[in-house]
Specification:
The chain contains 11 helices and 11 strands. About 45% of the residues lie in helices and about 15% in strands. Bound molecules: 1,4-dihydronicotinamide adenine dinucleotide (NAI). 1,4-dihydronicotinamide adenine dinucleotide binds next to helix 6. This is malate dehydrogenase.
Length: about 350
């Protein structure tokens, strides 16, 4: 079944498709930006989850048709559409998990930071509505530049007096998905077994795959490490160039985001064995936000996993130090934006 493939280690959703049509839990999920390149396939994958009872789709346009279409799938969740700012609040009432892929994607030649001017304001407005309508929800930020949009979201939630750092997540799952795929290909490993932690942030050199921590344990040559690291860091650009102006990763992103939603729902449902990499408030380094593996529980981040950052190779240690100034600047840019607005 589809859900099982999101969580190959846990085997929790490992039932056949027929069984997966029986509701097993009843969480409400909202997707903001649901009519977009990521939003549509993501909504489809969430519609297939047996853990979801209500799926609220919000966008500024074109979401009615997406919802009508999806609502014909005979899976348990009820799909509702919400169009435009006047319906945003209603899309968020009683929601357990809010996923935000709203905003513009990259075109060839653009960095994620080039999206800041447009997406920063979109994330600010959407998170303001989240604070007003479902302050206890897990918030998954996909909109780029994630390195800055997550600090923006944190500031907005603080201003609203509802910030819970355990429940705010930058979605970096796609970096892990890519790392796992590329390592398995390179080393001829069974994909389902491969797990590479990816730490730091979600742009260029701030994406740091810790290849020395790959499970199962793998030996890489220095050349392989260099090649794989650079490919994982630039994988988004690979897709942007292949799409040649038509956007960035949408299908693999939807897959990765759906995996992160499913993990969050399993954690909310009381599963005690849920781990994902995510960009969160952190004290693992001197930076206030940092992506690492985290243990998820009913209340969000239950623990950061510091062991991944211990015993790094010289290559990884250097890369970690090299990424810090860029990540720090992106965090400060986000915070300054959010504070300027008040
Ligand atoms: P898209 O342009 O296809 O879709 C964006 C959707 O957001 C559109 O339907 C648009 O109407 C909607 N939207 C715009 N302003 C909105 C607002 N104020 N409220 C609600 N919805 C609004 O873009 P795509 O390809 O889906 O990408 C979305 C974002 O995800 C981009 O910022 C992109 O950079 C980011 N992304 C993040 C990744 C990650 O790993 N975290 C990977 C790939 C993309």
């Amino acid at each position: 079944a589809l859900c099982a493939s999101f969580a190959p280690k846990a085997h929790k959703g490992n039932q056949n498709f027929q069984n997966s049509l029986q509701p097993q839990a009843s969480f409400k999920v909202a997707v903001l930006g649901a009519a977009g390149g990521i939003g549509q396939p993501l909504a489809l994958l969430i519609k297939m989850s047996p853990l979801v009872s209500a799926l609220n789709l919000y966008d500024i346009a074109n979401v009615k048709g997406v919802a009508a279409d999806l609502s014909h799938c005979n899976t348990p969740s009820q799909v509702q559409d919400f169009t435009g700012a006047s319906e945003l609040g209603n899309s968020l009432k009683g929601v357990n998990v809010v996923v935000i892929p709203a905003g513009v994607p990259r075109k060839p030649g653009m960095t994620r930071d080039d999206l800041f001017n447009i997406n920063a304001g979109i994330v600010r407005n959407l998170v303001t509505a989240v604070a007003d309508n479902c302050p206890d929800a897990f918030i998954h930020i996909i909109s780029n530049p994630v390195n800055s949009t997550v600090p923006i979201a944190a500031e907005i939630l603080k201003q609203k007096g509802v910030y819970d750092p355990k429940k705010l997540f930058g979605v970096t799952t796609l970096d892990v998905v890519r790392a796992n795929t590329f390592v398995a290909q390179k080393k001829n490993l069974k994909l389902i077994d491969v797990d590479v932690p990816v730490v730091g942030g979600h742009a260029g050199i701030t994406i740091l795959p810790l290849l020395s921590k790959t499970k199962p344990s793998v030996n890489f040559t220095d050349e392989e490490i260099q090649e794989l690291t650079v490919r994982i860091q630039n994988a988004g650009t690979e897709v942007v160039e292949a799409k040649a102006g038509a956007g960035s990763a949408t299908l693999s992103m939807a897959y990765a985001a759906a995996r992160f939603v499913e993990s969050s729902l399993r954690a909310l449902d009381g599963d005690g064995d849920v781990y994902e990499c995510s960009y969160v408030q952190s004290d693992l380094t001197e930076l206030p936000f940092f992506a690492s593996r985290v243990k998820l529980g009913r209340n969000g981040v239950e623990a950061l996993i510091p062991s991944d950052l211990q015993g790094l190779t010289e290559y990884e240690q250097k890369a970690l130090e090299a990424l810090k100034p860029e990540l720090k600047a992106s965090i400060e840019k986000g915070i300054a934006f959010a504070q300027k607005q008040t």
